[in-house]
């Protein structure tokens, strides 16, 4: 399954905000690769289940990088991840399948 980012109304790819998740589907871990807008050096990745229940929050620093999420104790299912930084956000979905 290929990751397709869902762009929120208050997000602009021209601002440089971008996130991908691999592998997808995942079993033991997910690597989020991100790029923040030019004037941002911090952000967070919020992970929820498909119903919107909070699962995890990952703090990120640096304008570009990767963050690992350990999914060994996460039940199978579809999850949403949202990268938030300086008032912008980008959301995608990840499938956990073991």
Question: How would you explain this protein's 3D organization?
Answer:
By secondary structure, the protein is mainly β. It has a single domain (6-96), classed as Macroglobulin (MG2) domain (Immunoglobulin-like, Sandwich), CATH 2.60.40.1930. Helix content is 0%, strand content 56%. The protein contains no helices and 8 strands. It has strands spanning 6-7, 18-22, 29-35, 42-49, 54-61, 64-70, 77-85, 88-96. The strands form 2 sheets. A 5-stranded antiparallel β-sheet has the order 1-8-7-4-5, with no helix packed on it. It has a 3-stranded antiparallel β-sheet with strand order 2-3-6, with no helix packed on it. The relative contact order is 0.32. The model is unreliable at 1-14 (pLDDT under 50).
Write the SSE topology:
Layout: E1 6-7, E2 18-22, E3 29-35, E4 42-49, E5 54-61, E6 64-70, E7 77-85, E8 88-96
Antiparallel strand pairs: 1-8, 2-3, 3-6, 4-5, 4-7, 7-8
Roughly what is the average pLDDT, rounded to an integer?
87
Q: Secondary-structure element sequence?
A: EEEEEEEE
Structural class call reads mainly beta
CATH topology title: Immunoglobulin-like
CATH homologous superfamily grouping: Macroglobulin (MG2) domain
The number of helical segments is 0
Q: How would the global form be characterised? A: globular
Separation of termini?
Answer: 14 Å
Give me the count of strands: 8
Strand content: over 45%
Radius of gyration: 13 Å
Tally of distinct domains = 1
In a few lines, what is going on in this structure?
The chain is mainly β. It has one domain (6-96): Macroglobulin (MG2) domain (Immunoglobulin-like, Sandwich), CATH 2.60.40.1930.
């Amino acid at each position: 399954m290929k990751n397709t980012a869902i762009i929120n109304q208050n997000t602009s790819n021209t601002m440089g905000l971008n996130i991908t998740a691999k592998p997808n589907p995942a079993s033991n871990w997910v690597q989020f690769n991100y790029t923040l807008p030019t004037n941002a050096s911090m952000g967070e990745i919020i992970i929820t289940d498909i119903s919107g229940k909070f699962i995890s929050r990952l703090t990120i620093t640096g304008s570009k990088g990767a963050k690992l999420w350990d999914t060994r104790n996460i039940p199978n299912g579809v999850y949403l991840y949202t990268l938030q930084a300086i008032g912008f956000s980008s959301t995608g979905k990840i499938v956990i399948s073991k």
